[in-house]
Amino acid sequence: MTQKVAVLGTGKIGEALLSGMIRAGWAPGDLLVTARRPERAEELRTRYGVTPVTNAEAAKTADTLILTVKPQDMAALLDELAPHTPADRLVISGAAGIPTAFFEERLAQGTPVVRVMTNTPALVDEAMSVISAGTHATADHLAHAEEIFGAVGKTLRVPETQQDACTALSGSGPAYFFYLVEAMTDAGILLGLPRDKAHDLIVQSAIGAATMLRDSGEHPVRLRENVTSPAGTTISAIRELENHGVRAALIAALEAARDRSRELASGKKD
Ligand SMILES: NC(=O)c1ccc[n+]([C@@H]2O[C@H](COP(=O)([O-])OP(=O)(O)OC[C@H]3O[C@@H](n4cnc5c(N)ncnc54)[C@H](OP(=O)(O)O)[C@@H]3O)[C@@H](O)[C@H]2O)c1
């Protein structure tokens, strides 16, 4: 049986998902999209051959609804969807910080909801998407969500209680690496290198290190020890990182991100 999937609110994340699904083999004819602006809907039709519909049509027609509007637009979208969404639709939320209960309260009793926290490397098919089941979502529903988000990277199932921690690690994670690259590039400039050369050196080092972490199966401590020779350059740098409390700063930073995610999920906006 053909399963129709609709992406509702097809912005940056929605489009990354859509293009990944098509590359992974989904037929554009089975994919519906919704957008707020007609020109955006036409752009998606031209670019991918998918069918733009209204939110209500998507709810009536598609088996799976993937909601990728901004968190602040979600309540209005659910108000629009609720009268048209039968309880057998799988609703997948890609919005940061909104609990599955928020959807369950606004949709028909028994609607299966799956919450997914992905991250921006979805744009380059290297996402880390963390997936949790709502009250009525079954193993099949989770598997379907994994199949969809697997088109743009890796997926991991976690209990919903761990979503705030995962937001701190992988949701915001790419930003910490961008910040590190920025700081290390500044250091390169201090050491006398032109900005573009410093940038290239650091970015390629980051790609190399990430590839080794992913592919070697080695613990990061072992990988670091391998390049830390007695009385060498690396240990001199590591001593300064420890002196400046970088490890403690990272632990505190991720704890702060987790706490902020909890606040946002509970409705506290400022
Ligand atoms: N970007 C990230 O880093 C990131 C990472 C992880 C998760 N997320 C989550 O992904 C979701 C989308 O983020 P994004 O960065 O892709 O945002 P985005 O580019 O603004 O995409 C959202 C799209 O939804 C459209 N929209 C809003 N209300 C609508 C409605 N009622 N009907 C149809 N379309 C509607 C918006 O239209 P307009 O263009 O007219 O505003 C926009 O095109 C968010 O919930 C966010 O929490 C984002």
TrEMBL record:
<comment type="function">
    <text>Catalyzes the reduction of 1-pyrroline-5-carboxylate (PCA) to L-proline.</text>
</comment>
<keyword id="KW-0560">Oxidoreductase</keyword>
<dbReference type="InterPro" id="IPR028939">
    <property type="entry name" value="P5C_Rdtase_cat_N"/>
</dbReference>
<dbReference type="GO" id="GO:0005737">
    <property type="term" value="C:cytoplasm"/>
</dbReference>
<dbReference type="GO" id="GO:0055129">
    <property type="term" value="P:L-proline biosynthetic process"/>
</dbReference>
<dbReference type="InterPro" id="IPR008927">
    <property type="entry name" value="6-PGluconate_DH-like_C_sf"/>
</dbReference>
<comment type="pathway">
    <text>Amino-acid biosynthesis; L-proline biosynthesis; L-proline from L-glutamate 5-semialdehyde: step 1/1.</text>
</comment>
<dbReference type="InterPro" id="IPR000304">
    <property type="entry name" value="Pyrroline-COOH_reductase"/>
</dbReference>
<feature type="binding site">
    <location>
        <position position="55"/>
    </location>
    <ligand>
        <name>NADPH</name>
    </ligand>
</feature>
<dbReference type="Pfam" id="PF14748">
    <property type="entry name" value="P5CR_dimer"/>
</dbReference>
<keyword id="KW-0641">Proline biosynthesis</keyword>
<dbReference type="InterPro" id="IPR029036">
    <property type="entry name" value="P5CR_dimer"/>
</dbReference>
<keyword id="KW-0028">Amino-acid biosynthesis</keyword>
<dbReference type="GO" id="GO:0004735">
    <property type="term" value="F:pyrroline-5-carboxylate reductase activity"/>
</dbReference>
<comment type="similarity">
    <text>Belongs to the pyrroline-5-carboxylate reductase family.</text>
</comment>
<keyword id="KW-0521">NADP</keyword>
<feature type="domain" description="Pyrroline-5-carboxylate reductase dimerisation">
    <location>
        <begin position="160"/>
        <end position="264"/>
    </location>
</feature>
<dbReference type="InterPro" id="IPR053790">
    <property type="entry name" value="P5CR-like_CS"/>
</dbReference>
<dbReference type="InterPro" id="IPR036291">
    <property type="entry name" value="NAD(P)-bd_dom_sf"/>
</dbReference>
<protein>
    <recommendedName>
        <fullName>Pyrroline-5-carboxylate reductase</fullName>
        <ecNumber>1.5.1.2</ecNumber>
    </recommendedName>
</protein>
<keyword id="KW-0963">Cytoplasm</keyword>
<feature type="domain" description="Pyrroline-5-carboxylate reductase catalytic N-terminal">
    <location>
        <begin position="4"/>
        <end position="97"/>
    </location>
</feature>
<dbReference type="Pfam" id="PF03807">
    <property type="entry name" value="F420_oxidored"/>
</dbReference>
